[in-house]
Amino acid sequence: MRLSYRPDWEEAVERLDRWWAGESLGRPAMSLTATKDGAEWEAIPEPPDLWNYWTNPDYVIPRMERSVRNTAWFAEACPVEWVNLGAVAQAGFLGTKPICHETTVWHEPFVQDWETYEPRIDPENEWWRITLRLTEAFLEQADGKWFVAVGEVAEAGDIMSALRGPERLCFDLIEGPLERMKQIRDQIARLLADVYDQMTGMVNRHMPGTSTWLRVYHSGRTTTSQCDFSCMISKPMFDDFIAPALAWQMSQLDGVVYHLDGPGALQHVDTLLTMPNLRGIQWVPGAGEDVQAHPKWRSLLKRIIEAGKAVHLSVSAGEIEDLLADLPPEGLYLQVGVGSEREARELLADVERWSNRRRR
Hints:
Structural class: alpha/beta
Distance between the termini: 37 Å
CATH topology: TIM Barrel
Helix content: 40-55%
Largest sheet: 7 strands, mixed
Number of helices: 12
Number of strands: 11
CATH class: Alpha Beta
Low-confidence stretches: none
CATH architecture: Alpha-Beta Barrel
Strand content: 15-25%
Strand order of the largest sheet: 2-1-11-10-9-8-7
């Protein structure tokens, strides 16, 4: 596959295939981006309201096209945008009311009783139709230039949290009806797998492979998995209620990076590390915590790497040398942005040199 916004994309894909297979690139895999030389940030149409900002292709597409066109892509960075309809967007397919905010979209819970609730996706559901329309518009605009990601496959527990409300779901896990909730969990997981198949099929009619909001491309089937609700429950509850459906979802794909968000999620790392299709963990420390590359987290990062997984980190250019003094490059996928194409080339050369120095 050739992409005009990244002429050397086929070489990057070959390296990414090796990274997904657990092979060493001689340096960390990197999503390295810079502002493109000669970037032109033309004015784009202003939407009349937040609903149009998120859902109307006439406003969404120019914004995404301008961003990807004015970015230079280095190392393993994929020129990609995705249909971004906020956190746990698939809850809207199952009946929640989406509420648009400036930075994301939230969903109003509506399920009153798990015993009578039956999950289904109505083909005429407005949020589903909006997703399809946006995806089609993205693919038409991007064809041959940049890659279109399918977003994410939301975890069934996060969807149930959106349907019911996180506080009420916590009580439900104690008071029940637990067996009925597990049935619904598994039904939702299968529905989300069907959604993924349909969305991926749309993309693959134009271009091979998959990617997500994390911008890690896979020649086969991938997603960025997560369960933010897991921060609110114990490890036994996670292992009993969340992990089975999560592991099943991962088993349907060729490789997954898991978004581990906040100290409250750290108790679940050991369970995650047992999942075969998990290739890596993106560690996000959470608001008010030290940055991802901080020495405070090194023992956690080493633990993940020693388990045979990779660590995905968003870092600054100035943090990488110290990070490579502590951690093996083959265990890292680094996301880093710099100000110019020259800086990107210099940083890539530095990373290769620091990686070679570690191997001596």
